[in-house]
What does this fold into?
Amino acid sequence: MSLRLRLLLAPLLLLFAFGCDGEEGGISNADFPKLEADPPQVIVPAIELGDEISRTLRLYNAGGAQLRITQIDLSNTLDTREWRLEFEALPVILNGGEGVNVTVYYSPVNPGTDSGEILVNSNNPDDPFKIPLRSEEADTELRWNPDRLVFNSEDSLPSTKSVSFTNLGAVPVSLGEAYLTDDTDAEFAIIDSTNTSATIGQGQTVEIAVIYTPEGFDRDEGTLIVPSNDPLNPRIYIPLVGEQPSGSIRVSPTSINFGAIDPDTESEIIEVVVENAGNAILQLDAIEFSLAAPGVNAQFVLHDLPAEMPARVETDSLLRFGISYKPQEMATHETALVLRSNDPREPTLLIPVKGRVRTRCVTQNPHRVDFGAIALTQTTAHLTLDLINCGDLPVRVSEITLEGHEGFHWSQVGGGEAQDVEIPPLSAHPLEVWFVNEALPERQLAEATLRIINDVPENPTLEIPLSALGGGAPSCNLIIRPDSVNMGLVSRGSIRGQTLDLLNTGTGRCEIRNQSVVTFPIPGLPSNFILTGPVGDPLIPPGAIVPVEVSFRPQTFFPEQAQLIIDYFDPFTTDPLQQNRQATAIITGMGGESNIEVIPGHLDFGQVTAGECASREERVTVYNTGLVDLCITDLRFEGDCEEFILVDYPVANDEGCISVTRHRPADVILVYEPGDMGVDQCKLVFISNAQDDPEMRVMLSGEGVAERDQVDTFVQTSGQTVDVLFVIDNSGSMGEEQENLEDNFAEFISGATTFQNDYQIGIVTTDMDAEDEQGRLQGNPRILTRNPDVERQFSNNADVGTSGAGEEHGLEAAQKALADPLIFDSGNACAADADCTEPDLCVAGVCGGFNRGFLRDEAALELIFVSDEDDYSPGTLNFYVDFFKNLKGFRNDGLFHAHAIVGARNGSASACSGSGGEADAGQRYVEVSRRTNGRVFSICDDDFGAPLRDIGERAFGLPVQFFLSRPAERASVQVSVDGQPAEGWSYDQESNSVIFEEGAVPQPGQTIVVRYEAQCFPRRN
It folds into this structure.
């Protein structure tokens, strides 16, 4: 609680101290004892594990009769290793107005919060008397900035830099004495190393300074190590780099792959750009090829090299030259371009160079086909056989013949014979093969060979053996595999599909008569299992494997079960009672909120050049949102996943468990390496001991494409569709700030008026204790839309009062507001809450969560946090940032921003005071804003007009940042607007976006075209 809140409460405490005169007649307080406690609850702040803290409360008799206290004890929810009480010997007898002190001692032995009650037994009418008792979460969150110290010393003079350590957690963090590693160059030294040890309280910052005294012009390196008692960061490593001013070479592209080129044909010239990113002249001493096998370097040609060597490149200047590929021999050629310079960090820079002569290549999949046992008069399923062009040139199939047993047949998929067919590079041409048993005796083998004649000199004839076995009398038997599927826990409003296989294990054809999903719901609840992929052709030949897809879209928090039933007719049995048969499988699932979160839920790698490049590395994170540690026991792919690769993942402990705690998530790093063109999909499955969802699946997708050249086209909007959520602190010290917000709302909404945006505005508070708040939209109407009265409506809704919880949970409130169950929309009409299934309500005539309708799929999302204290939400910053970004998709960075009007100064978190009030540093809010490219302003300013106008322009104004669909090579980016070369733009490598300067922003309706060459990341396979 802030000082201002205590001052506001003082008059109220005086008022209650004087009390009120009792009315005449009836029973007065003088007739009974009345036990009271001051304070009415005890909250112990978070402290370091093993330390001890005490708080004193006073029990007093507010009645007139004598009070006799016989027992004072802790509730059984509290650990007596952590809590103890001290008080006078019992019994204690108190006359009216008398009291006795009780001292509470707290010494945590493990992280987390503790809560319970002090129980007092007496002759008080309300016996036992309960005093709530809890501790704030004992948690550490240590941050440091920067994460490395780089010194550029002018004229050999000493240079000093510092690293700042800030504690964002509730528990103080102790730093040990900092030191330099033994291999650190002697030019570095810690300033006053005896004073580097410090204890950092919540929101506090300490600095450790290092001085660099250069000797010579070489590059100096070292490592600063800072020990701490933070369990997540017991030893912090800060790399040290020092040097005098020098040129710094940066080259684009970083690798060159010409792909496939015809022999004796020269490729297009690829431009190589050398940039001096240093602070002194860059001198290029040589541009040449590295040593390679004889004749390899002669296949590549350099163009437009500098007239004289060495060449000089000024600071922030460019040097350009070109390279082409002209192969004279059939081979793959690999070498490297070597650039030697005076860059002390990288005096020799290598650029891999690769090219190959176009070749023809053909293969087939599978290499043989065995149909198994086939009964007389029966026809097998049509099996697909792919002719694959694995080369760089089209392959022409001139003839296909089938020699052998006459029961074998083939055709092009879809019908007709595939003769004289051209297969493009990295593509496949499908054929169908099947067997008809007209007279093959039981157990007799039939064989044939399918021959494909093509124009590949090295493999002109593909031979594919075919075989089948006589099966005697026909039989029909359908089974579903697997016969039991658990969909796991699925968030309401989401849908999860599962593909099962229908197999004909008999030797004759079966006929499907009906397909259905029969549910076993709780009476009165709708079915949430859907047959989304039924079998198409009702006639299932022997040996056929046909996919069937069932999906689960829950609308309740209850476990559900269904049965997939496929009714089929067996024409081969003589018993009429046995002709109608069933194949079945049990499907189970549950809707609800999980204590395991995997973000993102769908990882899209985008387009990647097939056969040559890999995607950039992408991250999937498993978060534990429950209280108990989570154990991941297995991690596996599901489906056709050969082109997706696990690069890095946590190592399991001796028990085979990857432990995930609330503050230590698990990261999995993946890449996508397409081998051919087309879309690829599979699932990454996490197996854990989560009670509610032991199997979590993440959909992986990507597309292999032929070219690296990319064109992205954007049409400038006239103002985007946007949802805006204000998260307003409603604790006791926020009265003036809420008025400031209300008074300046017109500045915020002015951008929407100018650009005629389709907007929605909602307001939640930072109070997660009050049941009617906890992420619920406040006010009436709860969602504000464009209308002439919107300013008055916002003023009413933003007046959220100052009686909220003193511990602000702004990030948690925003997360809950935008998650199930509050945001859930069933789409089912209703007239009253009774028409809906708990926890849903009837909201604006539709069953769903209280915030139903606020979060729109097509809209951008802006969060605005307004608070004079830091955030105390239980989750980690990474979890909240990833959750918010996942709402719009990790590739759609431009559709989400978080802004902060908090304790800040010049865009950084800082305690502040001013005419607008005083505030603690809003560290966590500022960090979330920084990671989402949002705006940060000080809540201590006396006028929120300028900050709100700035945020409004970002929310409602013309987009200035356009995110590219593939990672781009910096030097290749070209931008045009309405067909003319654009000015006033820059390419930001980190966000992979083009950003326009003020005054150069394209106007509504204009077309922005960005041409570039996609980066080619090295393949692992």
